[in-house]
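Moderator note: this is an archived Q&A kept for reference. The question asked for a predicted structure of one protein chain; the sequence and the answer are reproduced below.
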Amino acid sequence: MNTRKILLTILVLSWLGYQMYLALVTPLHPLLQQPIHLVFALLVVLWFYPIGKGYLRIFDILLAVILLGVGYYFIHETQRLQLRIPYVDSTTSLDIVMMLVVVGILLEAVRRVLGYNLLIFMLLFIAYAAFGKYFPGWLKFGGIDLTNFTELMIMGPDGIFGIPLGVSANYLFYFILFGAFFSELGGGKLLIDLGLKLAKSQTGGPAKAAVISSGLMGMVSGSAVANVTTTGVLTIPLMKKVGYKPEQAAAIEAVASTGGQIMPPIMGVGAFIMAEMLGVKYAKVAISATIPALIYYISAFLLVDFLARKKRLHQEQVVFQVDPILPRLYLLIPAIVVVYYILAGASLMTAAVRGTALAILINLIRKKDRLSIEGYFNCLLQGVKQAAVIAVPTASAGLIIGVAIQSGLATKTSHVMASLGGGNLPLALLMSTIGNIILGMALPTVAAYVVSAILFVPTLIKLGVLPLAAHMFVFYFGIIAQITPPVCLASFTAAGIAGSDSWKTGWTAFLYATVAFLVPFVFVYKPGLLLVGDVLSIVEVVLITLIGTFFLVGSVSGFLFLELPSIWTRILLFAAAVLVILPEVLSTVAGIFIGGGVSVIQYLRWKQNKG
């Protein structure tokens, strides 16, 4: 084993040991726990995302040594940092130096891992903190000097070491590790094969397999791009083979994979942060998200079915072999155990750690496909790398939140929205939607959600929206940006696999995911969709939403029993879908009447043609 491999092994096992200490022995004070977690994450980023080759690596070595110094600083100063009174006790020159080092290395990590969009956004907030007194109008404030900026960023719970990074240290690391081991030890392939098996004999089978497989994988991974790369390499070529255009195949996979971030039990990173911000258990967030997520996937499934029937795509054109499913169902036990512990109210740490241990134990017992020690290490390596990539934007989100709150920007934005909207909820929702999508195009999902939650949610709550519905609203639109041009990572990743035009793929995915734009408006006005309220109201809103979804899918696909005769029929169906989903009883009845009329006419045409 060479020196580099030894150093990597020490780094990975040290971070794992630290996280296991937090999970199995005792958690630490946030001002020690979060900094050490970030130091490990940044060291991993330096390793896997080097600045260059040759002599340039000396720069990375220097940064690594500095990071070790940062870790020592927080360990050595932990008692002082925990006992001091923020903004009252003085800060030292060393505190300021450490803040500059942490912020500087974090910015460099953002540049390497996530590119320039988030980097520029962070620099704008830092500039706003420094030069706020020079900004015009309602953006103007007194500014934050270097001492107070140090207090904000690294000496309290409101900056870099705030809630988002705390969620990364307390929950996300363990779930990412579970996802890596579960997928690699056979669970991932089983879920994909299950999707292929269920859709094997159906019209447009590969597309339906993409929807089912991505939904099942999304329940474990919670990452749109990871879903695309995992399932898309199998489903996209099959979809193209049966007749879907490359941009259609890529768009279907992107839409299906993006839904993984809203699919319980393991949703996107933002959902864990949402639970912390709401002060509720993650299980409540996951349970509330179940029906909207199912409706999303029902719409995707109907869409690919309608498209296949419209284009007369038959499964006989392609054959894909799937290993027997039943003998492998035991591989799902770790995931079932994780869900059980989450619903039973156990800590998320406990659920994920036990699920991971069980996945490893099952693999050890199996004779077939048992991994070697190196194989287990590679699983760990993959999980640690993903955890580091998640820790960077969560820490960045903390910086942005800190400035937004300390400067009063969050409060001012809320006041501006309220004054422009004049207390009008639909207008406030529209403004939030546009802002969310813009943020989602520029930022990773977690950062987009957190910033949106700070800027837009307070206004929505003031206008009478339930806190859970308000947070879920901005969470949805931050995720939808993954498939919304011009910056849509899931769509672009799928386009790369399909060999399709990225721009066409993005807009096609945007069209196919239309239902995802309407559902959040439904649960704002009718929180029964989030399982809030009595059984009757929940059943009512679910049925109404499903009817609206059916009309909407028919409009988007241009098919309902038969191909729709004109663009005007599609527009009529779209209008019917919107009317059904609107909260007023009169509009709902009108929408059902219009859409039902079109459906009956189409059904009679189909019966006539069939006869």
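Archived answer notes: The chain has three domains: 3-162, 163-522, 533-611.
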